[in-house]
Amino acid sequence: MDLRPHLIAERHGVRHEILVGDITKLAVDVIVNAPNTSLLGGGGVDGAIHRAAGPELLEECRRLGGCPTGSAKMTKGYRLPAKWVIHTVGPVWRGGTHGEERLLAGCYRTCLDLALRSGIRSVAFPSISTGAYRFPVERASRIAVEVIRAHLDQNPLPESVLVVCFDAATYETYARLLQET
Ligand code: APR
Q1: Annotated catalytic sites, by residue?
Q2: Which of 16, 31, 19, 5 is nearest to 153 (CA)?
Q3: I want to staple 5 with a disulfide (CB 3.0 to 4.6 A). Which of 19, 47, 66, 139 is the partner?
């Protein structure tokens, strides 16, 4: 399978890409986490980010008082190579009739707007909600790519946006979408 990065968009000579990898290893300004509303840790990418960042991340999260679905809060990155973490709570998939698509689009949009306001230059997203929250990857990938492209068309920051897929199946779904659009 072709695991080379696939292009989401190219703006002013900068390639915004989908790639396979472990988001906790990326030395970007911000990595986005997919926690639950408590922000007090969990499994999946949330667990991986807390393990890599160390206990100070949880201590800071404790002081944030949680985060509603579709919203986002920013913390330091501590022992991560990334400087900061934006925590955004994705929707649990309940069949698609409970505003899940609107809420997921809101996660990407809120993170990008927060990055813009904070002068962030590089952001890496995981595939939000498509693990434990069971959001169908094909629908989620369309939403992610659509919101990222729209933001890049209207805003100078972030200068670089990556979507990091942890497994080949997720990556293939994103790559197939990008070949179609
Ligand atoms: N790097 C990049 N992506 C990762 C990593 C990693 N190190 N680890 C997992 N992922 C991927 C998963 O494979 C999936 O494609 O992140 C995507 C999101 O999956 P989850 O982490 O399960 O997140 P989500 O579906 O949004 O569910 C959130 O799970 O861990 C709990 O506390 C969390 O309750 C919250 C829920």
Answers
A1: 46
A2: 16
A3: 19
Pairwise CA distance, residues 104 & 101, whole Å: 5
CB of 127 within 6 A of ligand 1: the answer is: yes
Ligand 1 atom 24 nearest Cα: 129
3-class DSSP assignment, residue 50: helix
* pLDDT digit string, tens, across residues 1-20: 677 888 899 988 888 999 99
Cα of 12 vs centre of ligand 1, distance in Å, is 31
Q: Please name the residues in contact with 90: beta carbons below 8 A apart, sequence gap of 6 or more.
A: 34, 69, 103, 104, 107, 128, 129, 133, 135
φ, ψ of residue 131 in degrees (nearest 5): -105, -110
Cα(149) to centroid of ligand 1, in Å? 23
Closest protein CA for atom 32 of ligand 1: 42
pLDDT at residue 179, as a whole number: 86
Question: In sequence order, what DSSP letters do the residues of 145-160 get, joined into one string?
Answer: HHHHHHHHHH-S--SE
Question: What number of other Cβ atoms are within 10 A of residue 30's Cβ?
Answer: 24
